[in-house]
Amino acid sequence: MARVLIVGAGLTGSLCAALLRKEAPRPVHLAVWDEAGDSGGRMSTARSPYNPQSTVDLGAQYITCTSHYAKHHQSFYDDLLALGILKPLTAPIEGMVMKEGDCNFMAPQGISSIIKHYLKESGADVCFRHCVTQINLRNDKWEVSKETGPPEQFDIVVLTMPVPQILQLQGDIANLISECQRRQLESVSYSSRYALGLFYEAGTKIDVPWAGQYITSNPCIRFISIDNKKRNIESSEIGPSLVVHTTVPFGVTHLDHHTEDAEELIFQQLEAILPGLPRPVATRCQKWRYSQRKCMTGSCKTAISGSEKMPESTILWSIHVEGRPETHSHGMKPLGNKTAFSASNGYV
């Protein structure tokens, strides 16, 4: 039985695992590794240490089904809606730009519930705190080393982490990327920002007429969401939760600062926007070094796609192109549109 490792437990990795389990022509052993302590990647959900029912989405805020994705990938949305993992986003989001044919959805149990669903469907062995450092070819197998513990061998490795992290990997993988492929990978750039989640005691009132708001006049804050209100959750037993996403300039300026220092600056700006906001009982500040892909040149696409035949030992990497994950490999054609569906961050 072939052993397949998927590095990254975000949307791309979890969906890839589920589709491999469903469509692989023969049984495979699937493993998913992630350097974080939980699944989600840039679709992560944080929980209050005092009440796990109080949550905030620290990454993507909602899912957007465009007319293009509805045409090609409607089954993904239908399945998630039927299971109650997604529901229509009906709460008011001030400043949201809606294009004709777009539909927006929210996740009642948090945006990471989508990833957890696909990981469960895959039946993969999921391991956290596994930070991959190098990949070498040993006797027609890929030997994958991590920061702690012995290396393990796999027949196929799928890399779904941000491109700069792929380029930092040591070992034989560096020699497998052609000059053209490396130029294309190096042309990928990302925006950076912070997300700050705030959790409040039950009974706390945050009196605003919206569930989310895009901010255009603040140098620090780009988006605010009353997360429980976004999900239509009103309960006397669960305190409200609020999440703030910063602007890219703020994220870039404070990228190498201590998270605690950035958190205090964000809270000061939030108080200026929402005067009288009470102090939360708990916070969670997330630094997104690789928030959203900004650009990638397409001059080497044919070279990256590779041949039609998968070799016995294959290594793949994932690049987000125009909002959807496309998986390409060294010596393999792309897996195609079946691996894609559209996720939307709550800011532009």
UniProtKB/TrEMBL annotation:
Signal peptide: 1-17
Keywords attached to this entry: FAD, Flavoprotein, Signal
InterPro entries documented for this protein: Amino_oxidase (IPR002937), FAD/NAD-bd_sf (IPR036188), RNLS (IPR040174)
Record bears the keyword Transmembrane helix: no
Cellular component terms (Gene Ontology): extracellular region
Gene Ontology molecular function, alphabetical: oxidoreductase activity, acting on NAD(P)H
Pfam families given in the database record: Amino_oxidase, NAD_binding_8
Gene3D superfamilies on file: 3.90.660.10, FAD/NAD(P)-binding domain
Protein name (record): Renalase isoform X2
Species: Ursus maritimus (Polar bear)
Lineage, highest ranks first: Eukaryota, Metazoa, Chordata, Craniata, Vertebrata
